[in-house]
Design brief:
Elements lengths: L9 H58 L2 H10 L12 H24 L6 H26 L2 H38 L1
Helix pairs in contact: 1-2, 1-3, 2-3, 2-5, 3-4, 3-5, 4-5
Length: 188
Amino acid sequence: MVANTPASTPLDVALSVILLTLGVTIAGYLAFWLLSALSSAFGGVFEQSRFRRYRTRCDRGDALFEKGELLDAVALFAEAFFLKPVRRDSALLSAIANYHTGLLSRLLTVADELGKGRARLHSLVDTDRLLAERLEWQLEYFRLAQRGEFHRLREVEQRLRDNETRVRAAVRRLVEEIRSAEERVVYH
């Protein structure tokens, strides 16, 4: 025997749709806040982990330098610049600035070794200036976030992306200058 079920009225259907929409909206809102809280709590940990991976590249470059594989070390040093935006852990900015100074120093040391002290590295100054500019934009990001000026953060993020492109280009030029210093010594 088949049980009779009452037919759904248009009011029941409309009420079901409204409740379903309300439920999905509330669930989405709660998920957003949960993910936001997790990101705030652990975001700095992810940034630190990413930074450690870049420092590992530098360490591998150091090992190659010690073995005398200078051009391979230069390639690793060039890839080791940490140019990801830092959004959670402002204390990391100081470590990154010191790290970049160390990378530039390593590149200068390799250039001196390859060029026997005659290397001219015009891009070294540009790279250093762009890295200092990047640090200023990162600090501005944290100042704006602290003051709640979130509408200006997008502008700073765009400037950081532009800076990243310019730093990478300056590092490529620097590596080319280091390699050409080695070629001048070998062939002349």
